[in-house]
Specification:
CATH topology of the largest domain: Arc Repressor Mutant, subunit A
Shape: elongated
Number of domains: 2
CATH architecture of the largest domain: Orthogonal Bundle
CATH class of the largest domain: Mainly Alpha
Strand order of the largest sheet: 1-2
Number of helices: 13
Structural class: mainly alpha
Strand content: under 5%
Helix content: 55-70%
Order of helices and strands: HHHHHHHHHHHEEHH
CATH superfamily of the largest domain: Gun4-like
Amino acid sequence: MMNHPQQPREFDAVLGDQSPVLEGAAVLGGIEGVKLRLINPDPKVKIAALEQALNYGEQGLDLLIQTLNDNNLEIQNAAYLLLRYRTETRVKKALIESDIEILKQGSTDYIRLRDFLVVGKWEEADKETDRLMLVVANREKEGWLNVESIDKFPCQDLRTIDQLWVKYSKGRFGFSVQNRIYQSLKNKSDQNIWEVFGDKVGWRRGGKWLYYTEITFDKTAPEAHLPMIIGVYLAGASNCGEWLSLLKVVSSFTSRLVKCNI
């Protein structure tokens, strides 16, 4: 069967009137069926097609590589997750080149951050993330972000930073990972939600907040441990001298992530 990639197989889908793009179609077999499902507007259909593509050898691999540059981030991520452990030279090259689109979307230069993440220099990447956020917010002189600057922080820059962290940590670190955990704790009282979150992501130990030097900068760290975003806000809370100030800043940041759909 591998010599006839156009022929239907046992895992080919049978699509009828359920798909507006393929309405009236009969059996969509082989690589052509995968291609047709990839133009379906439903992301779930497209992701299922990507998973099937690998059953069709080199042609399927080509489709996955092409999809790394899809306009839909969900589709991009699905293709990346399917390709990330592949050892083919062209796949590795495509994964690196696919960052070009991510890097072009932000308002500043994210190449240095990407380069740190590629080689697993997590502490350097964390510090670079802080620096970049201050640059984007035009708060380099102050050295910290306030509520106003967070509320206005460009969504695309947050998304670019998050995509790079998520991609190179294989889904372990990133703003979106942190936000998912934070949102899951919303049933906690406002007074302790931040502490519970700190315990969950490993920023607290034994009931105490860790110093920056105690943070774990490798992939054995708890999920969502990085980037250590609290560092760029703590200075602001310290200047204000109020714990409520930190809570307000954190609340603003998580709200911004939600508004930016991150």
